[in-house]
Amino acid sequence: MSDVVLLPSVNKFLGRDHGHYIDGGFSAGSPTGKITVVNPADGEAIAQVSEATLGDIDHAVASANAGFKVWSKTSPAARAAVLFKLADLLERNREELAQLETCQSGKIIQISRAFEVDQAAHFLRYYAGWATKITGETITPSLPSFAGERYTAFTLREPVGVVVGIVPWNFSTMIAIWKLASALTTGCSIIIKPSEFTPLTILRIAELATEAGLPPGALNVVTGSGAAGKALIEHAGTNKVSFTGSVPTGIAVGKSAMEAKLTRSTLELGGKNSVGFLRDVDLDKAADGIIEAGFLHSGQICAAAERFFAHRSQIEPIMEKLAQRLATLKIGSPMDESTQFGPVTNKQHQQKLAGFFETARAENSTIVYGGKVIDRPGCYVEPTIILANSASDTLLNEETFGPIATFLPYDTEEELLHLMNDTPYGLSASIWTNDLSKALRLIPEIKAGTVWVNMHTLLDPAVPFGGVKASGIGREFGAAFLEDYTELKSVMIRY
Ligand code: NDP
Fold it and tell me: β-pairing, 273-277 with 219-221?
């Protein structure tokens, strides 16, 4: 097959002089500080966005504060209606958004359509439903009454104010939607700072949000590097940061937030997620499961698995079946609908993965399959299987964020549990077995924010998501997100 033809609207959008999206419209693009956006499929520059100045940051924060005044007073049902409309607009502009996303991130077009647009719309509708269901509680205090006075109390859940949403490059649309939907449904306003590698789709979505009826300033998008994110967090006019990204940046963000003004922060950070195959596992299902767990979007998913533990008697056949499947993957242009495996999102990441291949060789780990950069334009690496020598091999411990499955055999279930938990991270894990009773006994022993059984990586808006240990603080989705986007106010009344 050949590449899908870019829609005229995509070409037109790419050719614009992109400023920041502030106050319900685009500011003029900066004549100097420009960031070039590169298509990782061929290394070609496709657009330029502006690097935010401190003036731009002040402008966006002032706009978000004005937007907050209006939006926080908008009725819950009216807020929900705007978010439902935005979800409809995402779907109506599905192909344009999916193509833009694939151009900037190299995500294969089928994943851009299914996850960055369809799933994002699904999450948006879920959050929209919360707007009308945010409640406090009534409490009867036990204070003593000396002259017949009585007391009652209740709590209010109030929006925290202006949220700074900092988004990584791997799912730049869906993760931005998680953040803006959480903020807007609770009555907060939000400033999104996308990754400098993938700033385009969210700029287009901001326009659609205005079309959906969002008042000016309720959603602003400021483009720029990490410095722009830091300036937003430390700005006196912002109240919360919702960050998704790597552990080192997350620690820096958490520190900035605390030191600047005790800004609330939720940190969704990286992982080194484990998969444990119990002895009864069906080997074909295990191999299929590893494709889902480790190779979707070239492994560039925070919840993706990178550490695979199989019983010593089964590890060779599982790796062999996986290698057979990887050999059939069609590697190619992400704009070709038949492609199953595309490039990674940027050159730096490709080089980082090349470094991991070198490390594996230097440590004499066995490269069972792949293990090389692919010699073609763009940022391609081979899907890779590695057999580690021991639990201390680098590839079993450092997050690669790439299509690299590293294996180690185990002999007993106690050893399996120890290996699965032997990591500073705790975002997700999965166990694969037909023995439900055994699975239910193991689940409490696994130190991770999410434990899947016979599945991995798939997220649902009703199921809370977030990390333990170094994988973060706070939860998105479910009812849990309310804690982080609202302040609980207590009211006591004497009568
Ligand atoms: P980074 O941590 O490098 O960057 C994340 C975002 O933070 C980007 O927008 C970046 O801007 C910005 N940033 C960088 N420095 C600062 C700073 N000092 N203050 C404020 N913002 C800053 O992550 P990546 O973009 O490389 O994404 C990959 C990482 O994200 C992986 O570790 C992955 O595990 C994690 N991740 C976690 C998820 C989760 O839910 N737990 C989900 C998805 C990814 P810029 O890019 O412009 O430098």
Answer: unpaired
Q: Name the residue among 376, 366, 310 with its Cα closest to residue 342.
A: 376
Contact 200, 104 (CB under 8 A): yes
**How far, in Å, is the centroid of ligand 1 from the Cα of 229?**
10
Task: Report residue 260 as tokens.
Answer: 């600047």
| Architecture, CATH, for domain 8-269+471-492 | 3-Layer(aba) Sandwich (3.40)
Q: Which pLDDT belongs to residue 313?
A: 97
Both structure tokens of 40: 């990782």
The residue ranges of every structural domain in the chain are 8-269+471-492, 273-460
Ligand 1 binding pocket (C-beta < 6 A) is 166-170, 193, 195-197, 225-226, 229-230, 244-246, 249, 252-253, 268-271, 302, 399, 401, 427, 467, 472
Q: Which of 104, 107, 115, 166 to mutate to test the pocket of ligand 1 (most atoms within 8 A of CB)?
A: 166
**353-399: per-residue pLDDT in tens?**
999 999 999 999 999 999 999 999 999 999 999 999 999 999 999 99
pLDDT at res. 364: 97
pLDDT tens for each residue of 135-164: 999 999 999 999 999 999 999 999 999 999
Residue closest to 52 by CA, chosen among 166, 152, 162: 166
What CATH class does 273-460 carry?
Answer: alpha beta
- Which active-site residues does the annotation give? 268, 302
Tell me what the pLDDT averaged over the chain comes to.
97
- The CA 148 to ligand 1 mean position distance, Å, reads 58
Position 412 confidence tier, pLDDT thresholds 50, 70, 90? very high
CB–CB of 267/253 below 8 Å? yes
Ligand 1 pocket mutation pick from 249, 263, 273 by most atoms within 8 angstroms of CB: 249
* Rounded CA separation 212/184 (Å): 13
The atom number, within ligand 1, closest to the CA of 253 reads 19
Closest Cα to atom 15 of ligand 1: 226
Average pLDDT over residues 295-321: 97
Atom nearest to 427 CA in ligand 1: 41
| Among the ranges given (23-32, 69-78, 178-187, 241-250), the one the predictor scored with the smallest mean pLDDT | 23-32
Residue 467 CA: which ligand 1 atom is closest? 41
Rounded Cα distance between 116 and 462, Å, is: 18
Tell me the whole-structure pTM to 2 decimals. 0.96
Could you read off the pLDDT of 105-131 as tens digits, one per residue? Answer: 999 999 999 999 999 999 999 999 999
From 246, 255, 266, 307, the mutation candidate for ligand 1 (largest count of ligand atoms within 8 A of CB) is 246
Q: Do the domains 273-460 and 8-269+471-492 match in fold?
A: no
Long-range contacts of range 464-467, CB-CB < 8 Å, 24 or more positions apart? 465/268, 465/303, 466/266, 466/268, 466/427, 467/268, 467/269, 467/271, 467/425, 467/426, 467/427
